[in-house]
Amino acid sequence: MEAVSSLARFDSQPAVTALAVRDLAKTFGGARALKGISFDIGPGEVHGLLGQNGCGKSTFVKILCGFHAPDPGGQISLYGEAVPLPMAAGSFRDLKLAFVHQQLGLVPSLTVLENLRVSHVTGRRGLINWKAERIAASQALGRFGIDLDLNARLDSLSQTQRALLAIVRASQDLADSQSEGDKGGILVLDEPTPFLPREGVQRLFGLVRQLVGQGASVLFISHDIDEVREITDRATVLRDGEVTARIETAHASHDDFIEGIVGRRIVRVTRPAAARATASVKAAVRDIAEPGLTVPALDIQEGEILGLTGLIGSGYERLPYLLFGADRARTGTLTFGGQVKSLRSMTPRQAVADGMALLPADRPKASGIGSLPIVDNLLMLDMRRFQTRLGLRRRAMVEEAGKLSTQYEVRPNKPSQKLSALSGGNAQKVLLAKWLLKRPGLLLLDEPTQGVDVGARQQLFRIVRQAATDGAAVICASSDFEQLAQLCDRVLIFARGAVAAELIGDEITKDHIAERCYVESDSRPQARIDG
Amino acid sequence: DAVSDGVARATAVIDQYRKLPTFVAPGADFDIEATAKGKTMLSIPNTSANQFLKGIITREIAVGKEIGLKVQEWQNQGQPSQWVQGMDFAINNKISIVDLISGVNPAVVEPQMQAAKAAGVHVFASHFYDPSQPPDPLLAGNLPVSFYRQGWILGNWMIYKTGGHANAVIVKSDEVLPTAPLVQGIHDALAKNCPDCKISAEINVGITEWGTKIQPSVQSALLSHPKVNYVIPIYDSMSQFVVPAVRLSGKTGQVHIATSNGTPFVLDFIRNGDVEMDIGESLDWIARATIDGYMRELAGLPMPKEIGVPYYLFDASNVKTAGIPASANKGYGDDYVAGFKKVWEIK
Amino acid sequence: MAEPRFHLGLFVERFALVGAWLLTIIVFSIVLPGVFLTWGNFSVLFATQAPGAVLALALIIPLTAGDYDLSVGATLTLSAVIIGVLNAVLQWPVALAIPVSLAAGLAMGLINAFFIVYVRIPSLVVTLGSASVAAGLVQWISNSSTISGISPALIGVIGHRFLGISLVFYYVLALACIIWIVFEYTGLGRSILFVGRSREVARLSGLNVDWIRAACLVVSSLLAALGGVAYAGLLGAADPFSGLNYLLPAFAAAYLGATAILPGRFNALGALIAVYFLATGITGLTMLGIPIWVTSVFNGGALIVAVTVSQFARGREETDIV
Amino acid sequence: MAEPRFHLGLFVERFALVGAWLLTIIVFSIVLPGVFLTWGNFSVLFATQAPGAVLALALIIPLTAGDYDLSVGATLTLSAVIIGVLNAVLQWPVALAIPVSLAAGLAMGLINAFFIVYVRIPSLVVTLGSASVAAGLVQWISNSSTISGISPALIGVIGHRFLGISLVFYYVLALACIIWIVFEYTGLGRSILFVGRSREVARLSGLNVDWIRAACLVVSSLLAALGGVAYAGLLGAADPFSGLNYLLPAFAAAYLGATAILPGRFNALGALIAVYFLATGITGLTMLGIPIWVTSVFNGGALIVAVTVSQFARGREETDIV
Ligand SMILES: Nc1ncnc2c1ncn2[C@@H]1O[C@H](COP(=O)(O)OP(=O)(O)OP(=O)(O)O)[C@@H](O)[C@H]1O
Ligand SMILES: Nc1ncnc2c1ncn2[C@@H]1O[C@H](COP(=O)(O)OP(=O)(O)OP(=O)(O)O)[C@@H](O)[C@H]1O
Ligand SMILES: [Mg+2]
Ligand SMILES: [Mg+2]
């Protein structure tokens, strides 16, 4: 009966929709993450799903893949046919849906081959022909111009390589579920771009356009307004689990988007006119000569925010981990806090003791402990402050965590909740706060605002900038050129494992960074990501 | 010659234990009901999972009912801390007698023995020590049983059966007190009555490891000593692991099994032809003799020097008398029941 | 893509256990000439370790799916004792007794799966508890004593010799091959691996995690029950205690096996080799007439040493199994 | 931020185990009037379960840090037997024997830590192996037999009664309080928790993960050795097997305890309550003269039921302990 009435409603619409969502709601133990959202995606449409951290985007995606069961009452229809909810495990494949999840959905301890071919291999009835799987995997990677060892374990790959792998997998799965002549289907991309360098994003968009050209639809989730404006046709904006705006991309400006998402105009953080000439050198790196990364000399001044960037394989993202001792270095020294330290013997323990801080990019594995409360994650490094002779003052810790959550705009503000219950962006805020509490002298960031929404991002920039003003030296490795442009006093562009260019002051703009990245790596036979 | 003389002596020993046992009064007649009146007894077995002990205690409870003694079992899984708890339970609840039946070593619960003595609880041990072993001084009384004689019978059985050419593997558990005299009995039998006999291997396996270690060890021993013709698991509960070991090493028919205790499932093994001989003791008899001895102590009479329960050999010729399937109290005749009734002055 | 080439470290890692086994055999053959290296000795070894091998194979299935099953030992005993009671005491034909004992295994598996997968209690807790309950039931129905007199029909099917080795060994071999093929070459096997390595990712990939975990637990209990049938047939009797004694060695073999053949993954061939490696060492030592306590030391020592060798071969990397 | 308010589900979850314990006491008090609910009974109960309680407390330390220690049972036995041999057989004074047995515990801990932390072998494998080795050594030095005749000096220190209960119970109580305070109210305790929940995050946050894990393993072995001293003192004798009997109940108690007081985390008070809850049930059943197999069923059933109650109270959420 339900299906009939809903069909009737859809029929009244002009064209048949690829995906129709009606009154979809989801409650997590009393908290309503989705409060009944409705929107449509047409065939051949690229549809943006936007909104601040924690507004329910990933929750929707996880309902669509059958991970979460929605509250009763909502409906999802694909090409006019109602989907029984909750969806059975794996049924999304028959419905021609393919996903890139926000945390990518890859298994670190298995091989590239196994991760790439998971849906084929697990869905098989007969025996697996590993040779055929290998060939198919190589071809899929080859079509994307990616060179990966199929036997390599996933956890030996960089975040960028992992993101690419997830995208290749999803596009392959979608292609495989389409039958000849019928090229429908929906590709769902939940924040696929934070780890992608610019040219990776372009390749992704190329793929998206190709799929759309064949009649498939794409649901695209991102916090990067420029990306959204570039690729989407329409967008739906969520706030606190409700649809608050529908935007026709062609008729909306950058600021219209931001206003739609945040609900207000935002004040952008602006870089101070120029770095202070008088500032002293806070940290000095010398003589790093690792396989794939050479840094003969690099000085960071007090109060300076130094950006590192480059294309895939340029090696820039390894520097923070080497300086912090998180990855073993064989060469190089770091002069910091008046001491010359050999990186060979550097350990994270030593680094923390010396007043360094590292915010890694791999949030679930290396950055946050999902099974522990927010308060423990937040105050992990600051336990001593709450230690009295009679033990830890737990209540004071919870209060302090509440204050910090407000300051960092963590939503919802419930310090005793587990970190894993926070949305991706909110968890990132907590973890940045964890390190900034230590007032580090040298702050090392890898993709610090990954998954952080446009509004909160300004807040984080302000906080990082304040830390710099208070005397810290900041190194920020990022593939997000806009972030670098807003935040950094100086940007180093890496190519083939070495610094290839340096941008200072007004030279630092999004386009300029992009241009230099290409120029520097083009000056040699092409690397891995290419047409 | 020496060999045939020895075989003759061994045969005499064996014949003596193939006769149906007869009852010998443990002492003067006395009014057991008067002694037992108002008394309680707590039996603590080594572990409640042991069918030999369980069988004795079940009979003790029944005999207790006959004479007006309240008997209770302290169920346990063989953990010393549970024995401690049992002793303390007896002390706290003013139980008159604690019966450490065949296994709980009084030395292991020494602090509790002391406390029991101070509280006036009589702690007895029955069917635990060999007469040659000094009992724990804190015991109120002791009813030893000759484990040496069991060994002696086992040794002579092999001599008798092989005509003086026994070659044996012995499976034992050194951690239990009766093992030493029992094994000594086997050695002495071979030394005295058989110049050509030998013991190829003695395998010592802790009780908790019977299930995993006996079978492979016996197999290895049989394979590395191809001339062996007897395996003696000194306690018959071990034989469940010895029987498959013999079969799996392909020695069925060549290697025989003789053992002791008369546990019913082993008697079933005899009926099936897997085991050759088992030295049996009637559990009901042990129960009666135990209660008899304790009550004599309480009545101020002298306790017997030994528990006085006779051994009786079961083999293929007489195993059916123990019942099908075998039971722990059948096959020993029943004149002892009447005998005890008379001694106890029960009408 | 580069073809995988011969790699010394990897080779050492994969075959260290096999090498250790061969070395053990060689050493004992020299020390015990004419006694150790005989067909008779090895045929006995292969047959008597069969129930332990079945347990090890049963264990690796839920272990791959990320669950511990500590109840397999108790399930083996339960199944053996049920056969004993039904066949030897109540005189049922074996053909009726076996289905009942397998049904008991099925019930154990379903109970484990219910509490682990539906109620979401850690598997260690549930199987610790269910093992204790099963052990109690075993003592009850067996009256804590060994039941002998199991039908020669069963003993024949299990213990009949082919090429001098009891049939049960060939069954175990077949079982190991099936498990190997399922894990390496079927979609189901890979699904189990995915579930074990990351439940969340497996769910996002559309696998029915709950069903897969439940199925693995049920299969492991069923295999354990089959192990009980093998045990009863091998001994011709069922005793209420020794299944538990197989548990720790089976765990040791499962983990030791995960260092061999396919290092870093629980695998059937590795587990089988591990069972027989440990048993060979112990047989040799007992033949030497060495006191029993040495075999405990060997068991533990060999486990640690063998894993250590393979760890050094892989540069002391963190392993994926926990 | 809203103040945490009274929450029925959470309350049920935290105190379900205590409730189950009280219920057990009430039922047995009614069924066994005048026998069960006596100071004498409970004082004995408290004392005899002390070694098991020490083991459960020892276990939760490495469990919190993410490592299993299956060797605590063997270590307890080793320590008790060393005291037995040195004091009762070789006539050393207790004051010399105790340090030696603690040193043996220390050695066990260091060996475990070396293979787990340095060689990076899964803790389950290492401690399975080291437990087997230790069990072999125990049989060797004790000649597989119980050693009695331990000095009254030790018996006095452990078994002397204060308010009717042996001193050993107060030691256990003090130990549980110390562990509770360390885990809940010190930075060290939090660090252990961080290490257990995510080694990588802990490492990058500057914690010395290897040292913390090693320290937890060493402390757990040392506590187990102390448990051995308590055991020897309680019995005045040392037997070579029963430490292993304590192992599974101690694991059960550690996990059961993790459903109470601080649900979702191994915690000392929960473990202590779990030990005494299980022991109370078994004592009551024993006093009723119920067949021994019922106690096994009770042990396992109580574990599963208690955890199930607390799981339903928390809405069957996935637990964090594995
Ligand atoms: N498993 C869970 N349990 C409880 N609450 C949850 C859970 N998963 C998500 N939430 C809550 O649901 C809300 C929506 O989260 P969701 O992950 O969908 O946000 P999002 O829009 O994807 O944000 P982001 O841009 O930061 O990724 C958040 O408030 C989050 O805290
Ligand atoms: N789980 C896996 N992960 C990665 N690679 C695998 C996996 N399983 C098999 N392979 C690889 O797939 C390839 C084919 O495997 P398969 O076992 O089918 O070989 P084959 O058909 O026997 O080929 P040949 O005998 O000619 O080498 C091999 O290179 C093997 O290493
Ligand atoms: Mg999200
Ligand atoms: Mg980006």
TrEMBL record, chain A:
Pfam families for the chain: ABC_tran (PF00005)
Alphabetized GO MF terms: ATP binding; ATP hydrolysis activity
Keywords linked to the UniProt accession: ATP-binding, Nucleotide-binding, Repeat, Sugar transport, Transport
Family matches, as InterPro entries: AAA+_ATPase, ABC_carbohydrate_import_ATPase, ABC_transporter-like_ATP-bd, ABC_transporter-like_CS, P-loop_NTPase
Residue ranges occupied by any ABC transporter domain in the UniProt entry: 19-521
Transferase listed as a keyword: no
Superkingdom of the organism of origin: Bacteria
PANTHER family noted in UniProt: CARBOHYDRATE TRANSPORT ATP-BINDING PROTEIN MG119-RELATED (PTHR43790), GALACTOFURANOSE TRANSPORTER ATP-BINDING PROTEIN YTFR (PTHR43790:SF9)
Protein name (record): Sugar ABC transporter ATP-binding protein
Lineage: Bacteria, Pseudomonadati, Pseudomonadota, Alphaproteobacteria, Acetobacterales
Automatic annotation (TrEMBL), chains C, D:
Cellular component annotations (GO), alphabetically ordered: plasma membrane
Compartment(s): Cell membrane
Entry keyword annotation includes Transmembrane: yes
Membrane topology value: Multi-pass membrane protein
Record's keyword annotation contains Lipid biosynthesis: no
Primary site of residence: membrane
CDD domains with a match to the protein in the record: TM_PBP1_transp_AraH_like
Transmembrane residue ranges: 15-36, 42-63, 70-90, 96-117, 162-183, 211-234, 246-262, 269-290
Keywords per UniProt: Cell membrane, Membrane, Transmembrane, Transmembrane helix
One Pfam family hit: BPD_transp_2
GO molecular function annotations of the record: transmembrane transporter activity
InterPro entries reported for this sequence: ABC_transp_permease (IPR001851)
Protein name: ABC transporter permease
